[in-house]
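Service request form, structural biology core

Requester: graduate student, group of Dr. S.
Request type: structure prediction, single chain
Budget code: on file
Notes: please return the result as structure tokens.

Sequence provided:
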Amino acid sequence: MEKRKKEYLDWFKKKSDKELIDLFNREVGNPGWVSARADYLSAMNEEFDNRHYDYSIIKSDNGGIFLRHKIKLVDNYNFELLLSKEEERIWFLMESWDLGIRRNKSWIDKGNLNE
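Core staff response, request fulfilled:
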């Protein structure tokens, strides 16, 4: 297994950023799972680290990567999710709701609740 992962790592090192992202995006939505795929994704994860990408937007708490959304590299360092129009709308609503809660909490923390 380690040999296979090393082969994937060597292969990923030869890929351009765009090619590596395209390879990740091919995996999105693929529910199949075998040990070779685990090695492949583990090596990809490691290559993301080697390239010093900030991939926190797709990184799980246990160090793996989420395969829910396709991504694009926006500035040689950060990823952005590629969302459908419906997902964009939901994301906007969630961000707006979160901003509203933070504003209300700030207003309450300033003692405005008793006015």
